[in-house]
User: What shape does this take?
Amino acid sequence: MGFFKAYDMRGTFGVDFTFDTVRAVGMALPGILGAKKFLIGRDMRLTSRRMRDALVAGLISAGAEIDDLGLASTPMVYFFTEKTDCDASVQITASHNPACDNGMKVSFGNALPVGYSNGLDRVEKAVAEILPPGVRGLPPPSVEIPPAKNAPDAKRLAEYTAWLKERATDFSGLRFAVDCSNGMASIFAHALFGEGPLYLNDTLDGTFPAHSPNPLSDEGREQISRAVREQKLDLGIVFDGDADRVMFVDGDGKFVQPDYLIPVVARRGLAEEPGAAVIHDVRTSRAAIETLRGNGARTVMGKVGHAFAKPLMRAENALCGGELAGHYYFREFAGCDSGALAAVKILDEAAESAANGVSFTGMMRPIVSKYANSGEMNFKVAYMGKAVNDVLKTARSLSRMTAESDIDGYRLEFEEGWVSIRKSNTEPYLRLIAETDTPERLARWKAALCETAERNHP
Assistant: This one.
């Protein structure tokens, strides 16, 4: 699908992009964004430092000024983008992608994202003009590149961590594990959660030696699940590579689907602000939506992805929000996503529940067990348009529809459940979800939907 995505720039180094591509992006950004001062952060991937140098060379050659945050989580870059006088920021990261990948997330000075619809499309065109087909590469940069910081900015890391701790209560009574995935959560986890938890993979390593940096994958969660079971802990927390996403396993080591936790993240805020908006994406469980409404939320459904969620947060003045992928957004965090802030809020709720004699597993059971949910199913298809239409026809025949939304693919509502059909914005997949009132009905719906999708396999 190329380097330029709907939400960011991301791909396999040496295949989808090179250091010259990154430098060309730096040359293009100031003029396209109308930005003079850039805040730059980076993760621990093996190519990130040289990407930083290439990006900075391009930015400086275009007349920009640089504020180097050094090694940073993506939410930390958002935090200081909004708090400083920068005009824009770039975080160098491929988030949860494999070690061979890397990329960049660009934000305006107000921390709103620059996606393909509001800037990256023009950056892609500019890069194609700077590096047209047949050009072997750019000449060496003629500007002086300031040396990169080899560690986090200690003062600003302490400020960010202190801000998070101010929003935490006492969860010392919980027994839990924290898996940093050898990613950017390693730089703040001990300071934020203390020395009580069991820590896993809490050193920076861009090769991700323990497991995938994607906690949505079974492989990315296997270690934390095993640790919780073996140590008989209350719960486990696992961050992705750049720490913008966080996921939980319960006391049995079972994965808690991230959308089920949106009501948990929102509960305390809704008690203080009844009627506040809470956003969610088109893949969100009906159990989560109904729980939110029961707690007084005005629920707002939006498109998948941070490039759409953050503007929606501001447009609705939403208290918070969340996505199936494990992103949680907060008004108090400039409408941006923070895995660490979500973890703190969920731990606080779990600690309060435990103090009242209900475990984290028990606290989540009313939401988790209310409906039968397939989780997101992914299919490679030969022709996306035909596949979507074929699956849509099958889905409409499952039962009598009560509503249909097409804000992001299709979400079909039935009395017995719902179905989501959408093409991925970042990968060449058709994505399906089904949720029903009984496991038996879910099995029938899944069989029909999957059979149709698989007929469209390339």
Remarks:
- The mean pLDDT is 96.
- The longest helix spans residues 339-355.
